Amino acid sequence: MVQEPLAGEVVVLATPYDAALDFAGTRSEELAGKVVVDISNPVDWTSFDRLVTPADSSATEESAARTPGARVVKAFNTGRYQRRTPPGAWLSPRRRPTFRFIGR
Q1: Any residues with CB less than 8 A from the CB of 103 and at least 6 apart, and which?
Q2: pLDDT value at position 80?
Q3: Residue 100 and residue 57: Cα distance in Å, rounded?
């Protein structure tokens, strides 16, 4: 784990999900006032068929709960486009799927 003091205004959590939560929790005071970009994917690494976040939460919400003074945003998330778009949406040039920006 990174032991050096955190410098800069933006911190990217480019680690596995569990490590990102651990880092956010142990360094929350240093992360206060910074933008935290969480690029972890909360996937069950044993089966790759489910997320390991609570059913009523998300990876971003879990990271944000551990870093109350930071602005947490989610980026580069892997998600199946089939779950977010109607059938054939990618085939129509007039209908492009939209993705939500998740953060606070």
Answers
A1: 60, 71, 72, 73, 74
A2: 52
A3: 15
